[in-house]
Specification:
285 residues; alpha+beta; Ribosomal Protein S5, domain 2; Alpha-Beta Plaits; eight-stranded mixed sheet; 10 helices; binds adenosine-5'-triphosphate
């Protein structure tokens, strides 16, 4: 095989509780993460020399070695003493800097792609531990791709009862949020640290109303204090019929959960001025 194209799925956080800043600068967290069927397409082609090139149809992400997908290729080549280089192309569909792990999922696709092209036969566990978590805290989840409780800095994953039979409306106001800035704002305040508990029970019970009532994101109020659109979007999602709505990650993407397929006219009326998309949860085992 000389070439492979992979779907790199985005994620949302159904719950996100941020803990204390650790000595290494990262934050401990407890989060329920869910893959959704909004994906970038990542194509990898083997080269005849040992170079890496990266191109993309997006003007918002870098095409040089600062791209996290490039870094993943470099690390795979180094770790597994691979002799060929790769041409990487990213067809971007996930909002950039939107709290949907767009970069991490591209890196995860590169790891999977090189594993397949070079017949390395690495297990999911090996991909997560040997390369994924070194590249970024969300990369292991992007390899895992199912409903999971993430702990540590996000790299400790435990499969939980999956979210299914519902629709998710993603809304992005196209406002870039600096994750670092939101963490700094959080560190300046005395806060209570929580762990995901109720939402795990709600998922287990497959209780849609309870799941909606348990959606919670510690970062939301901080992002909302710098971006007026967050609260407006959440209100608009509820007006459009969402059972619950919150922000994902550090924002700026928000999402609403719908039991039935949302009414297109209603969505257009409430959310027409934003980028929005109706997706469903996905889980790969
Ligand atoms: P998370 O949910 O993990 O916090 P995010 O969705 O908020 O991530 P990303 O879309 O991953 O944010 O992008 C954040 C930054 O990373 C941007 O400044 C972007 O330019 C840079 N970046 C580097 N490589 C990529 C990539 N392949 N895709 C997206 N962004 C990338």
């Amino acid at each position: 095989m000389q070439e492979i194209t992979l779907k790199a799925y985005g994620k949302i956080n159904l719950a996100l509780f941020v803990g204390k800043k650790r000595d290494d600068g990262y934050h401990d967290l407890s989060s329920v993460m869910q893959s959704v069927n909004l994906f970038d397409l990542v194509t990898l082609k083997k080269r005849t020399d040992d170079k890496i090139t990266l191109s993309t149809n997006s003007e918002e992400i870098p095409s040089d070695r600062t791209n996290i997908a490039y870094k993943a290729a470099e690390l795979m080549i180094k770790k597994f003493e691979i002799l060929t280089g790769f041409d990487i192309f990213i067809d971007k569909k996930i909002p950039v800097g939107g709290g949907m792990a767009g970069g991490s999922t591209n890196a995860a696709a590169v790891i999977e792609g090189i594993n397949a092209l070079c017949e390395l036969n690495l297990s999911l566990e090996e991909m997560c531990c040997a390369v994924g978590k070194e590249i970024g805290a969300d990369v292991p989840f992007c390899l895992f791709k199912r409903t999971a409780h993430a702990r540590g800095i996000g790299e400790k994953l435990e499969e939980v009862a999956e979210l299914s039979n519902c629709y998710i409306v993603l809304v992005n106001p196209k406002v870039f949020i600096s994750t670092g800035k939101i963490f700094s704002m959080m560190d300046e305040e005395e806060r209570e640290y929580k762990e995901c508990v109720e939402i795990l029970e709600a998922l287990k019970e497959r209780n849609f109303e309870k799941i909606c009532a348990c959606l919670e994101n510690d970062m939301q109020k901080y992002t909302a204090s710098c971006c007026d659109e967050i609260e407006k979007i959440i209100k608009a999602l509820k007006n459009a019929g969402a059972g619950g709505a919150i922000m994902s990650g550090s924002g700026s993407t928000c999402f609403g959960l719908f039991k039935e397929k949302p009414d297109e006219e209603e969505l257009e009326k409430e959310l027409g001025k934003y980028w929005y998309k109706v997706v469903e949860p996905v889980s790969f085992k």
